[in-house]
Specification:
This protein has 204 residues and is an alpha+beta fold. The protein has one domain: M1 Pyruvate Kinase, Domain 3, CATH 2.40.33. Helix content is 26%, strand content 25%. Strands 8-7-11-10-9-13 form a 6-stranded mixed sheet.
Length: 204
């Protein structure tokens, strides 16, 4: 689990992208982990309370960049291993930790990085290349508050009735996928619902 280490200068204003691991258990409420911050409304809110990123995707960029990509380096709160975050469906739910004290997260949308990511990484235009790979991680809302600690298990407790994953949404839904998403049991953000409707309308 990672939270803000220090606020640093960003492209337009100060940014909380510099996140680093913390020891012990961290309380997670509907606004995210204790000790974390969001300085830009477009990067925070209850639908983006916890940013989850996969170790496997970080390894891809580590090879590409030629150096390690430690937990928190992309601004994520939770670095996970063995969980296909790019393949996670919108509305998918994960139990982090145990049922009694852990937290339940719901996948709400992909991360949409800005120039602050490129500045933090030190590579011009990196935020655009980051998106092109589809390996952007998942922004999640907190369904059930609780505590998270390094080494906690993660269990998928709900898979919605559609096939639109984080990776599919970033790459571009087909009309049939968008229609299926709209007809599913997934609670969608306003932005994603509007995007799906526009995609369906393109086929008519």
């Amino acid at each position: 689990m990672c939270v803000v280490h220090e606020l640093i200068d960003g492209y337009w204003h100060r940014t909380a992208i510099d996140k680093r691991p913390v020891s012990g258990s961290v309380q997670v409420d509907i606004h995210g982990p204790a000790g974390d911050q969001h300085l830009d409304a477009s990067h925070g809110g209850v639908d983006a309370a916890v940013y989850v990123y996969a170790e496997e995707d970080a390894a891809y960029f580590a090879e590409l960049l030629g150096h390690e990509v430690p937990a928190g380096w992309f601004g994520e709160n939770l670095r996970v291993r063995g969980l296909d975050v790019t393949g996670a469906l919108l509305g998918e739910r994960w139990l982090v930790g145990d049922v009694e004290t852990g937290t339940v997260l719901e996948v709400r949308k992909p991360r949409t990085p800005c120039r602050n990511l490129s500045m933090h990484v030190g590579v011009e235009g990196f935020h655009l290349d980051f998106v092109r790979t589809g390996r952007v991680g998942a922004m999640c809302r907190v369904v059930s508050v609780g505590k998270v600690e390094a080494g906690d298990s993660i269990t998928t407790v709900h898979r919605p009735s559609h096939e639109v994953s984080i990776g599919v949404l970033v790459a571009g839904m087909s009309g049939s996928q968008a229609a299926e998403l709209l007809a599913s049991d997934a609670a969608l953000t306003t932005g994603i619902r509007a995007k799906a409707r526009r995609r369906v309308q393109r086929d008519h």
